[in-house]
Amino acid sequence: MAELTALESLIEMGFPRGRAEKALALTGNQGIEAAMDWLMEHEDDPDADEPLAAPLGHTLGREPTSSEQAGPEGPESSAGEGKPILSEEERQEQTKRMLELVAQKQREREEREEREALERERQRRRQGQELSAARQRLQEDEMRRAAEERRREKAEELAARQRVREKIERDKAERAKKYGGGVGSQPSPTTEPGPVPSSPSQEPPTKREYDQCRIQVRLPDGTSLTQTFRAREQLAAVRLYVELHRGEEPGGDQDPVQLLTGFPRRAFSEADMERPLQELGLVPSAVLIVAKKCPS
Prior knowledge:
With about 300 residues, the protein is an alpha+beta fold. It contains six helices and five strands, in the order H-H-H-H-H-E-E-H-E-E-E. The chain has helices at about 5-10, 15-25, 30-40, 65-70, 90-180, 235-245; strands spanning about 210-220, 225-230, 255-260, 265, 285-290. The chain starts with 5 loop residues before the first helix and ends with a strand.
C-alpha cells in the first residue's frame, strides 16, 4: 500500500499547508511525529501561520518536497514518475492512523500538563507549609522575648523595692545612731523605774516597764500608718518613718511634717524629736496626727 508524504499526511489531518511546511522545515524533515510534536507545542503561538523568512526548499538540510520538485504544474505533472496514487480506502486508513497518532500525542500532552499542574500544586503547598512554620517560629520567638522582658522587668522591680527597703533601714539606723547613741549604755529597764511622762495629756503609766510601743499615725488624707518602735527610740524615728511611708517616693523632696497628739492637742517641737518615746508618754501605745508643717 502506498504511503502519503509527511506534508500530505499533515494536510489530511487538517493542519494548514503553510503551518505543516513550517513544522517540517523547523524539525529538519525528520518525520511526521517530530512535525506533529512541533505543531502541538506551538499551536497557540501567534506567529505559527507566518511563513519562514527563507524559502522552504533547502532549509535545515531538508530535501525539497514532491510538490516543490513538481514545479508550478503541481503534483499531477509528476504523478506518474514516482508517486503512486492512493485509493480512497488507503487514504482513509492512513488518515485514521494519523488521527490516532494525533490523539495519542494529545493525551500525552494532557498527561504531561496534568503532572506539571500536580507538581506546581505540591510546590505551592510545600511553600505554604514552610511559610506557616516560619510564621509560627516568629510568633514563638516574640512570645519568648515578651516573657523574658516581663521577667526582666519583674526582677528590676524587685531589685528597686529591695533598694528602697535597704535605704529605709539605713536611714532608720543612721537616725537612731544620730539621736539615740547612748541607748545601749543605759541601765536595764528592770532595775530602774521609768521616767514620769511630761505630757499633761497622758496618764502616768503603770509601774510596769515597756520595751516597745505601738504608734498609730493618722495622715492628712485619712489613711493611717501603724508601726512598733522601741520605747527608748526618739520621736525623730517616728517622723522619719512617716516621711518614708506617706505615699511619696523615698528620697524625693518631701514637705516637713508636724506630729500632734489628738486630745488634748499638743504639737511636738524640734526639741521633742530628740526625746525618747518613753519620756514623751507615748508608751505602750499612742495615736499621733500628721499635719503639714508650714515653712518658717
